[in-house]
């Protein structure tokens, strides 16, 4: 498990501080999302939260600070933000519950599979390009639902289902290959 070692200095990397700030902004964001009269605040918090996601990876790479901590925290933060946002929006803004269920199913599966891979192979699995595209597309859809409910959000959500479906299949195939010990062409350890 040596290659999964996290160093204390990684907590101070700007990219990891952004990821941690995303987690710290989540309760405030969820509070505003749950208050229909606070739509502007919810939109601002969610946009800020997701902006930190858009810039943390490029900052880490440009500074040569891609870290194990970032590889662990970033996908967990993404999933917590998007999944909890989907739950709140399903309760308050017409976000479809079946999509929320699929999102939760996929993300719990990805996290459990990553834990299995980490335990058996001492390797941190990183996001696929389709997973990153799904995050971007779902972010646009959730922002659309916050801004104007299903009128703007639903078309964006249906578009988001394209990379979502692709990522669902790709993560499953990747998990099977990693468990069989096969190398995957995009299975490098970079954030």
TrEMBL record:
Q: What is this protein called?
A: CDP-alcohol phosphatidyltransferase
Q: Which UniProt keywords apply?
A: Lipid biosynthesis, Lipid metabolism, Membrane, Phospholipid biosynthesis, Phospholipid metabolism, Transferase, Transmembrane, Transmembrane helix
Q: Which GO terms describe its biological process?
A: glycerophospholipid biosynthetic process
- Tell me its family: Belongs to the CDP-alcohol phosphatidyltransferase class-I family.
Q: Transmembrane stretches, by residue range?
A: 12-33, 99-118, 153-173
Gene3D superfamilies reported in the protein's UniProt record? 1.20.120.1760
What does UniProt give as GO cellular component? membrane
Write down a Pfam family by its short name: CDP-OH_P_transf
Intracellular or extracellular location(s): Membrane
Q: Main localization of the protein?
A: membrane
| Topology of this chain in the membrane | Multi-pass membrane protein
Task: Name the Gene Ontology molecular function terms of this record.
Answer: CDP-diacylglycerol-glycerol-3-phosphate 3-phosphatidyltransferase activity
Report the superkingdom from the record: Bacteria
């Amino acid at each position: 498990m040596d290659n999964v070692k996290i160093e204390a200095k990684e907590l101070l990397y700007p990219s990891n501080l952004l990821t941690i700030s995303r987690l710290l902004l989540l309760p405030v964001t969820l509070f505003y999302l749950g208050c229909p009269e606070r739509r502007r605040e919810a939109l601002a918090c969610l946009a800020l939260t997701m902006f930190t996601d858009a810039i943390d990876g490029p900052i880490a790479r440009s500074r040569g600070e891609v870290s194990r901590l970032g590889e662990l925290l970033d996908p967990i933060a993404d999933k917590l933000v998007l999944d909890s946002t989907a739950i709140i929006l399903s309760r308050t803004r017409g976000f479809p519950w079946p999509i929320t269920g699929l999102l939760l199913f996929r993300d719990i599966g990805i996290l459990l599979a990553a834990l299995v891979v980490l335990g058996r192979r001492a390797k941190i699995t990183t996001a696929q390009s389709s997973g990153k595209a799904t995050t971007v597309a779902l972010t646009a859809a959730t922002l659309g639902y916050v801004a104007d409910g299903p009128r703007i959000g639903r078309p964006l959500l249906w578009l988001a289902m394209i990379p979502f479906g692709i990522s669902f299949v790709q993560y499953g195939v990747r998990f099977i290959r990693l468990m069989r010990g096969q190398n995957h062409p995009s299975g490098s350890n970079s954030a």
